[in-house]
Design a protein that fits this description.
335 residues, binds 3,4-dihydroxyphenylalanine, 38% helix, alpha+beta
Length: 335
């Protein structure tokens, strides 16, 4: 047997094999060893050396080949890809097409909320996501160091701006913008919706980031009765059914009187008991005055509350943290 031609063959085989190490156990190699005892004492050392050299050469080659294979596999398998490794490009499923993604349920519901108010004659503006102490507190009749400021603990930028803790931060702007209309004999009827932020310990009903919707109505003769009618109308439209409602006293510096608005949990939404849905009241004279509206001529009411709470009741969601979690299993339920 020609050692040189077998050498070439074995090296070649190793290069082509899925598992190059198999060559070391091949019949061909074993046959080369079987030749040894048949040789004369003079021939043996040279042949033996050549054979050892070949084995060494094969082992080195195998090491290189195995390392290459390892790299190849690493690049070939993308564990994040939703197709099997080595699927040709033109046979891979498309990624992130419209029918894979879906709208966030909060956006769908927020749009619904705003639409109901639109149909009732309210204009809508988005609330700011960065504001200042003046709008979030001062214009709302919170003097500096007022204890009620504690319930609206938000964050602060180095420059002193605040991601607002409530959409009431828009009231001053709404009032100022509507002043002309009011003086021309009209009314102010605006809702403001958007993200709000609180420095809060998180649990099933508390998030640091959530959504609110705020309403402001001012006219020459607005009443608490009108406010309750507007809110009842809203909730009955949103839940598409008649509801039992009630109010109870509450304190907010920017309204007087201040109330909490409650609805009775309808049986169709799984239950019993009263749920606080929002805060509301007649706009405090100081708030009107600050915005340049004469509280002796005009009266207003305002309300504000969380959107997540509405949606949680509607769909029986038991943890507010799902909304910001980005969990696909949750989001897919709303496709
Ligand atoms: N801003 C209050 C909060 O986030 C809710 C609120 C209460 C808004 C009374 C109002 C209101 O407009 O009149 O807790």
């Amino acid at each position: 047997m020609n050692l040189e031609s077998v050498r070439k063959e074995l090296l070649d085989r190793a290069k082509k094999a899925d598992n190059p190490r198999e060559v070391l156990r091949s019949k061909k190699l074993k046959e080369l060893y079987k030749v040894l005892p048949t040789l004369t004492a003079a021939e043996r050392p040279e042949y033996g050396q050549k054979l050892n050299a070949l084995k060494k050469e094969l082992e080195e080659l195998i090491k290189v080949l195995e390392a290459e294979k390892l790299n190849e596999t690493v690049t070939l398998i993308d564990i994040t890809a939703p197709w099997a490794p080595n699927t040709p490009v033109n046979e891979r499923p498309a990624l992130l097409t419209m029918d894979h993604g879906s709208r966030h349920p909060l956006m769908t519901e927020l749009e619904r909320v705003v639409r109901i108010y639109n149909l009732m004659g309210f204009a809508a503006i988005e609330s700011r996501q960065l504001d200042d102490d003046f709008h979030m507190f001062e214009t709302l009749n919170f003097p500096p160091n007022h204890p009620a400021r504690d319930s609206y603990d938000s964050f602060k930028t180095q420059e002193g701006f605040v991601p607002p803790a409530h959409t009431s931060t828009m009231q001053y702007r709404i009032l100022q913008n509507g002043k002309k209309e009011l003086e021309a004999g009209g009314q102010i009827a605006v809702v403001s919706y958007g993200r709000v932020f609180r420095n809060e310990d998180l649990d099933a009903v508390h998030e640091h980031t959530f959504y609110q919707c705020e309403g402001v109505f001012v006219s020459s003769d607005a009443t608490l009765g009108q406010m309750i009618a507007v809110l009842r109308e809203f909730f009955e439209a949103y839940y598409e059914q008649k509801l039992r409602i009630k109010t109870q006293p509450a304190y907010f510096p920017f309204v007087e009187p201040g109330l909490e608005f409650l609805i009775e949990k309808p049986a169709s939404l799984g239950g019993k008991g009263w749920l606080e849905m929002l805060g509301c009241g007649m706009i405090h004279p100081n708030v009107l005055k600050m915005a340049g509206i004469d509280p002796n001529k005009y009266r207003g009411f305002a309300w504000g509350g969380g959107i997540e709470r509405l949606v949680m009741l509607k769909y029986g969601i038991n943890d507010i943290r799902y909304f910001e979690s980005g969990k696909l299993r949750f989001l897919k339920e709303f496709k």
